[in-house]
Amino acid sequence: MADEPVTTMEQMVSLEYKIHSTPLQRSYGRALREGRITGHKCPECSLVYSPPTGFCSLCVVPTSEQHEVEIADRGTITSFTIVDPIQYRGQEEREVYALASILLDGASGSIGQQRIGDVAPDEVRMGMRVEAAWLPEEERKGGAAQAALGGAIRHWRPNGEPDRPLEEFAEHII
Amino acid sequence: MAVQPSTYKLEFPYKRSLGPVVGTFLTGLRDRKILGICTSAGRVLVPPLEYDPETGDANPDDWREVGPSGAVEGWTWVEKPGPKQPLGHAFAWALVKLDGADTAMLHALDAGSIDRVQTGMRVRARWAAETRGHITDIECFEPFDPAES
Ligand SMILES: [Zn+2]
């Protein structure tokens, strides 16, 4: 109020930064825009890294585009968490939702923090089979954000296949 | 296709409580007055402090209005201001000793060009169009020649 003493001060601590993508991220992003998920297959141990890292950390060998393989846009939920968003200032989420780690068919490791949709959060379970709900091609993002699956895939949804048994993905649970 | 970098923004909104001394100072700015606090020894500190830096004693609740004009005690030129800086064009950061104060206050000085800035030059506070109890209620200082006004 105009006549009341000033007792507090609002202060916005703000950090803005830009990230340039690497050639590897750009080729991964280009494929995502085309609706393909790619990885690199180690020429020595055959492990498939997706997103590609450009090397195999177990064999200590570089990988490149000649080792590129395509990964399925479906997989198995290895673990998940239910997020009940607290409505702090700046929060953009309103509803309860699930984030999951997914072991994509053809990949040797799971991808984390993937949004699950088209299913009630309390029905999400380990072993559930899901597929990508791709954004329309014109909405898929460019820039370094293209390296994130979230720039091209809206969420993952159940694809109706029977659940996979725990033994199949137990070693991928983080 | 040209690759654009991605821009990210992290923001933490804080609300700080000010305490009686800074609170009084910012209340003054909201009301377009610059207030200094007077120590037991009679020195006027602007911006005000809760304690006398000479003795460590708490300052009495004794306020003096100072300025809004004063003299530049020191300065540095900013040729290319960053996005968070108070002015969008080249300016000086200046230590301004307001008339009636015994200490200098750091603020922006909108002098137009580096050639117009000198230690000892007279300046005056330029108030923001709207004041809200923040150091930016003083938009900046500007050169001030009493003969011209
Ligand atoms: Zn390997």
How would the blueprint of this fold be written?
The complex is a heterodimer of chains A (174) and B (149).
Chain A: E1 8-19, H1 23-33, E2 37-41, E3 48-49, E4 55-56, E5 61-62, E6 68-71, E7 74-83, E8 97-104, E9 111-116, E10 129-134, E11 153-158, H2 166-169
Antiparallel strand pairs in A: 2-3, 2-6, 4-5, 7-8, 7-10, 8-9, 10-11
Chain B: E1 6-17, H1 19-30, E2 34-38, E3 44-45, E4 63-66, E5 69-78, E6 91-98, E7 105-109, E8 122-127, E9 138-143
Antiparallel strand pairs in B: 2-3, 2-4, 5-6, 5-8, 6-7, 8-9
The structure holds zinc ion.
Observed structural traits:
heterodimer; A: 174 residues; mainly beta; 5-stranded antiparallel beta sheet; 3-stranded antiparallel beta sheet; 2 helices; 11 strands; B: 149 residues; 1 helix; 9 strands; 8% helix; globular; binds zinc ion
Describe the structure.
The complex is a heterodimer of chains A (174) and B (149). With 174 residues, chain A is mainly β. Chain A is 9% helix and 36% strand. Chain A contains two helices and eleven strands; from the N terminus they run E-H-E-E-E-E-E-E-E-E-E-E-H. Chain A has helices at residues 23-33, 166-169, and strands at 8-19, 37-41, 48-49, 55-56, 61-62, 68-71, 74-83, 97-104, 111-116, 129-134, 153-158. Chain A has a five-stranded antiparallel β-sheet with strand order 9-8-7-10-11, with no helix packed on it. The longest helix of chain A is centred in the N-terminal third of the chain and has 11 residues, at 23-33. Chain B is mainly beta and 149 residues long. Chain B has one domain. Chain B is built from one helix and nine strands. Chain B has a five-stranded antiparallel β-sheet with strand order 7-6-5-8-9, with no helix packed on it. The radius of gyration of chain B is 18 Å and the shape is globular. The chains are: A mainly beta (174), B mainly beta (149). Strand 1 of chain A pairs antiparallel with strand 1 (6-17) of chain B, so a sheet runs across the interface. The complex binds zinc ion (ZN). The site of zinc ion has 7 residues of chain A, from loops.
